[in-house]
Design goal:
single chain, alpha/beta, TIM Barrel, Alpha-Beta Plaits, 2 domains, eight-stranded mixed beta sheet, two-stranded antiparallel sheet, 34% helix, globular
């Protein structure tokens, strides 16, 4: 059983309870215009070049058999339509400016790697979190990974959009200790406009989860002018309360690091001038979603 990931982040503190090791899966059915992990859009191979590390030696262009690498103003540049992802540029680059952002990994090998962090996780009541991309977009790989983690008594968490068939959600749910569910836009037309897909399946999946499982936390990413609107926030709260009024809701401030990733991938970003919200603004949003005493 093999799957595609693009990163493993250790000592993560915001991806579930305790100290966690977060595995980032490649592939996602959504195309959120603000996505802060665009390298996770597709399952396949990919590279990016970090300009600040490039020393302009030209070794990558010499090594590339397809002529996909060249120097522009003394900095390496890739013609993606010609790249076959042979990896020769990545291996040759002396400054590590060219980086692969894909990794095909065997589930047993991945479990062994994750178990190295188990001591830190156990001490802090942490564990392993699956994120992405959308981890459930590789359902068989995610399920097998979760099963093996639970066999090794590892606390599991998943960050998901629920934009997958309901049978996938039901199959993995018994092996997940904590679910972080991203609910972005409650209006179906707005959801289609900004994520590329309808939200009917997402909301249906959430209803099933709310009825049958515990330890769910809803997260709302605050995107200026898109999700960070009173009508949207109040609407999401009303929907969650209609399913289960005891589910906590968290607000996630806008991530200003996203635009640089799009530049590295030669992709256009929504708006590079957007800023994170101030503490005062975050307090105002928090008042909008304040519902009842969850204690």
């Amino acid at each position: 059983m093999k799957g595609y990931i693009f990163d493993i982040r250790r000592f993560a503190l915001y991806d579930g309870p305790g100290i966690r090791t977060t595995v980032f899966f490649k592939g996602c059915p959504l195309r959120c215009v603000w996505c802060h992990n665009p390298e996770g859009f597709v399952k396949g191979k990919n590279i990016w070049i970090k300009d600040e590390r490039c020393i302009g030696c030209g070794d990558c262009s010499t090594a590339c058999p397809e002529g996909a690498l060249c120097l522009k103003s003394g900095i390496a540049s890739v013609q993606r339509e010609r790249c076959v992802f042979c990896g020769k540029c990545h291996v040759t680059c002396p400054s590590l400016a060219i980086q692969r952002i894909d990794r095909k990994v065997d589930v047993n090998t991945l479990v062994d790697e994750l178990l190295r962090d188990k001591l830190f996780a156990d001490i802090s009541s942490g564990g392993v979190t699956l994120s992405g991309g959308e981890p459930l977009y590789q359902p068989d790989f995610a399920l097998e990974l979760l099963k093996q983690l639970k066999q090794n008594r590892v606390n599991t968490c998943i960050e998901t959009s629920l934009a997958v068939p309901q049978d996938v959600v039901k199959s993995v749910a018994p092996y997940i200790d904590h679910m972080l569910v991203d609910l972005k836009l409650i209006d179906k037309d707005e959801h289609m406009r900004y994520t590329g897909i309808p939200n009917i399946e997402i909301l249906d999946n959430f209803r099933v989860l709310a009825e049958n499982y515990q330890n769910i936390v809803v997260r709302i990413p605050l995107i200026p002018g898109i999700t960070a609107l009173e009508k949207n926030l109040v609407g999401i709260v009303a929907f969650v309360d209609s399913c289960a009024p005891n589910i906590p809701i968290e607000l996630i401030n806008y991530n200003t690091l996203a635009p640089n990733k799009y530049r590295l991938l030669d992709m256009e970003y929504l708006n590079s001038d957007l800023n994170a919200f101030s503490p005062k603004e975050m307090d105002e949003f928090a008042r909008l979603i304040k519902r009842r005493d969850l204690s």
